[in-house]
Amino acid sequence: MIEVLWHGRGGQGAFTAARLLGAAASLDDKRYALAFPSFGPERRGAPMRAFTKIDTVQIGDRSAVSKADFVIYLDGTLLAPGWERELKPGGICLVNTADALDDPRLLAIDADGLATELLGRPIPNTVFLGALAQLADCVDRESVEEAIRQYMPAKLHEGNIKVVERAIALVQQAEVTGHEESAGGESAGQPGAAAETVTGLHRSTHSSAAHMPQLFATVPEPSAYADTTCYAAGYLTQVNAGWRNVRPVLNASACTGCLQCYLYCPDGAIFKVSGQNKAGVSVDIDLDFCKGCGVCAAACKFDALSMAPEANAKEA
């Protein structure tokens, strides 16, 4: 059985990709596929998982995948220490990032950049479908493109098929580069050293694990219990909860002070200030609590708020 584990955020199309992969594989009369998601009640942008199982016999095991042949991160910020525990021996982990990675089991693909170029939006799911069409034996380009035609709206066919074809070409290029480096010996012991946006590899130090209070083997004293489980109001176990990939940017010259952003923000991350702040407007944004949902930008009728990529904001 070939098992694929998809890590993404709500709205990135992880489950859609899992279903399309299963549909592509099942176009072969000798293959069976199963695809299903795993998520809680969180809103758009929250981490979620999806799974695809492909086999030559009917699949009776409908449990979540814990070790996979391919692990895919549609959002590179979800890659955390311990990622290798989800890989089967010989497995590959594909990550949506333009950064370089330094482990031969990690394949970096700038899926957001490719999707933005061809689709106008950073929707990375079909980029990884194209990568799997090149890397996995259970699907090929023709089956993936046919699955897109059968299961996606007609208006999305052309763009996503172009994405698949470009992704296949990039992975083919990466494979050739890797073979040339191995043969040349100049980069021996340094897998992917010459890779750029596709195969550049670097070990991520990002951790999405929130700090949790210490657990005791015995019942603690009340004071010790309070110190490890009680926090002041507004305490975050992890700033931003790791959800945001875009952030609101306020254009002070366009802001009229109507407070619609303040009223509609579901997390209370936009707050009123006394008089006006240093930018000359009557609201401010608490980026520690903002989840990047974009409700404020949609509510603003004066285009005073826009959503900017989080990566750009961090670089600035």
Question: How would the blueprint of this fold be written?
Answer:
Layout: E1 2-9, H1 14-26, E2 32-38, E3 47-55, E4 68-73, E5 87-96, E6 106-109, H2 111-119, H3 125-135, H4 141-151, H5 157-184, H6 222-229, E7 246-250, H7 260-264, E8 270-272, E9 283-285, H8 295-299, E10 305-309, H9 310-315
Parallel strand pairs: 1-4, 4-5, 5-6
Antiparallel strand pairs: 1-3, 2-3, 7-10, 8-9
CATH superfamily of the largest domain: Pyruvate-ferredoxin oxidoreductase, PFOR, domain III
Question: How much strand?
Answer: 15-25%
Under the CATH scheme, which architecture of the largest domain would be assigned? 3-Layer(aba) Sandwich
> Using only CA atoms, what is the Rg?
22 Å
Overall pLDDT metric: 80
CATH class of the largest domain: Alpha Beta
CATH topology of the largest domain: Pyruvate-ferredoxin Oxidoreductase, domain 3
Protein name: Pyruvate oxidoreductase subunit gamma
InterPro entries: 4Fe4S_Fe-S-bd, Oxidoreductase_gamma_subunit, PorC_KorC, PorD_KorD, Pyrv/ketoisovalerate_OxRed_cat, Pyrv_flavodox_OxRed_cen
Keywords: Oxidoreductase, Pyruvate
Pfam family, one: Fer4_7
Entry summary:
By secondary structure, this protein is an alpha/beta fold. Helix content is 30%, strand content 19%.
Overview of this structure, please?
The chain folds into 2 domains: 2-184, Pyruvate-ferredoxin oxidoreductase, PFOR, domain III (Pyruvate-ferredoxin Oxidoreductase, domain 3); 239-315, Alpha-Beta Plaits, CATH 3.30.70. The protein contains 9 helices and 10 strands. It has helices at 14-26, 111-119, 125-135, 141-151, 157-184, 222-229, 260-264, 295-299, 310-315; strands at 2-9, 32-38, 47-55, 68-73, 87-96, 106-109, 246-250, 270-272, 283-285, 305-309. Strands 2-3-1-4-5-6 form a 6-stranded mixed β-sheet, with helices on one face. Strands 7-10 form a two-stranded antiparallel ribbon. A hairpin with an 8-residue loop joins strand 2 (32-38) and strand 3. The longest helix is centred in the middle third of the chain and has 28 residues, at 157-184. Residues 246-276, 281-310 form the 4Fe-4S ferredoxin-type domain. InterPro entries: 4Fe4S_Fe-S-bd, Oxidoreductase_gamma_subunit, PorC_KorC, PorD_KorD, Pyrv/ketoisovalerate_OxRed_cat, Pyrv_flavodox_OxRed_cen.
